Amino acid sequence: MRRRVIQAEPDRAAEGDDRPRHPADWAARASGLTGRKAPDDSAAVSHEASRAKFQTYLTQQGLRVTNQRLAIFDAAQAQKEHFTAEQLLDRARVIDDSVSRATVYRTLPLMVESHILREVDIGSGEKFYLPAANGNTQVAQVVCVDCDRIFEISAPFMEWYGSTVSLKLGLKPISQRLQVSAQCIAFRQSGRCPNRGKK
Questions:
Q1: Which of 71, 76, 114, 150 is least surrounded by CB atoms within 10 angstroms?
Q2: CA-based nearest residue to 160, from 23, 14, 19
Q3: Cα distance between residue 96 and residue 107, in whole Å
Q4: Is 131 inside any structural domain?
């Protein structure tokens, strides 16, 4: 089953100095979920800056910066919607036909670890990937079981919550995610969903 990732517009107010200090305040701000794609943001991390970051990460890990890895990087960064490893393989081979399946599967975790990509696991057995726009990894996913869609919203409260809960237990958080399974109200009421079939 093919799912589509939709990014909601980022919460600009959360980027200022007037950031809420309580999770309920964050939740109130986050309630503006629209299911719309985020517009192109001029402050987005440039392709070249992301590429340099990835090359630096590979070097720090003692790995070679190869043409195949760079083709995989370029193919991934060109995507505006979610993609699977197999889809990335096809797109990377357009750039460099020597890219192997094994190299794609070895490179994807490196891109996730270096915060170039975000991994989206909705429990379907297949992982999806999306470029990490603006380096934002604090994202919540709402998976509609009726519309067959994945909506994403900025969730800056997650960092505060994860740190607070972990520190109370004497731990340091290293990763976290928020994912909600939901039903389409319009589909349940009328049998038609406004989100179905949208591209």
A1: 114
A2: 23
A3: 15
A4: yes
